[in-house]
Amino acid sequence: MTAVKLEDARRVISAAEKKAKEIGQPMNIAVADEGGNIVAHIRMDDAWIGSIDVSMKKAYTSRAFDIEPLTLKRRNWQSIPNREASSSAFMLQTTAKS
Fold this sequence. Notes:
The protein has 98 residues and is mainly alpha-helical. The chain has 4 helices and 2 strands, in the order H-E-E-H-H-H. Strand 1 (28-32) and strand 2 (38-43) form a beta hairpin.
């Protein structure tokens, strides 16, 4: 697995920012490396301040489970064993507004 460099993170953020503008939804965008460490984060104008933490946890969780964030959102929360004991960050990822 190759390391996520800042240049890579900037390209991902740029593409995500473009999409957010297209759909008219300001967003917090975070990119994590293979270890789940945040490489870069931006908060677009008018994006929810409360979503800063959510975006970073979503980036981490995506790397921890090695799945795309949209898959986290679509995952059936009821199918996860011991979901009450699972991290609250994962629950936020599945229910957060995109």
